[in-house]
Write a structure and sequence with these properties.
The protein has one domain (3-121, 156-170). 46% of the residues lie in helices and 21% in strands. The chain has helices at residues 3-15, 37-43, 47-56, 58-70, 87-101, 111-114, 155-171, 175-183; strands at 20-26, 73-80, 105-109, 126-130, 134-140, 146-152, 173-174. A hairpin with a 5-residue loop joins strand 5 and strand 6 (146-152). The chain is globular. The relative contact order is 0.20.
Length: 191
């Protein structure tokens, strides 16, 4: 699917006939978020502006989380974090921390926790699973720019990936404690 096809398909399926737990797995350590002003500010090393923009967006993120909850849904996200934490991840984990503070369910796992799943040079895919019915493998180019997705509705495959992400979520550390211990002190304005 092209980017536009994926985004349209996802939006339709996410908000209609979808309830229960949805899973998101993020494995890549770098993405390009060119439509995000806060990310752009962090890339310019303007952390004061980047963090201010995240705070300005807090109410919108909270409203989105409430809308998900009101629809009877949850999104449980697993974020694989390698060390040292890259500048991108520093920004993303800070952004996710805002989401976590307003109800987002986010856990962090380390590479050791996914090693057994990444044999023969394979790396876990970027995934978004809508319940037990649809799995999207979200595709990115070498730079981390969204390039499309592969949609799967084969029940056994969707269940397989859902079980993997659920297991990683169960093993993961809540973002709040991870952020306080590993991320907060790295922010350029922390000192």
């Amino acid at each position: 699917m092209s980017v536009d096809e994926y985004l349209d398909d996802f939006k339709t399926n996410f908000w209609h006939d979808n309830s229960g737990v949805n899973w998101k797995l993020e494995r890549r350590q770098e993405f390009v978020e060119s439509s995000n002003e806060s990310w752009e500010a962090s890339r310019r090393n303007d952390w004061r502006r980047s963090l201010a923009l995240l705070e300005e967006g807090r109410a919108n993120v909270a409203a989105y989380e409430r809308r998900i909850s009101d629809k009877g849904m949850e999104v449980r996200r697993v974020r694989v974090v390698e060390k040292p934490i890259t500048p991108y991840l520093l920004w993303e984990l800070t952004s996710l921390h805002v989401r976590h503070q307003v109800g987002g369910k986010i856990r962090v796992v380390e590479p050791a926790q996914v090693r057994a799943l990444e044999t023969g040079g394979t790396v876990l895919p970027e995934l978004f699973l809508l319940g037990r019915t649809i799995a999207y493998q979200v595709l990115y180019d070498d730079e981390g720019v969204l390039s499309g997705a592969v949609r799967c509705t084969v029940p056994d495959e969707v269940r397989h990936w859902g079980d993997i992400v659920a297991s990683l979520y169960d093993q993961g550390e809540e973002l709040g404690s991870f952020f306080d211990r590993e991320v907060a002190g790295l922010l350029p304005l922390a000192g």
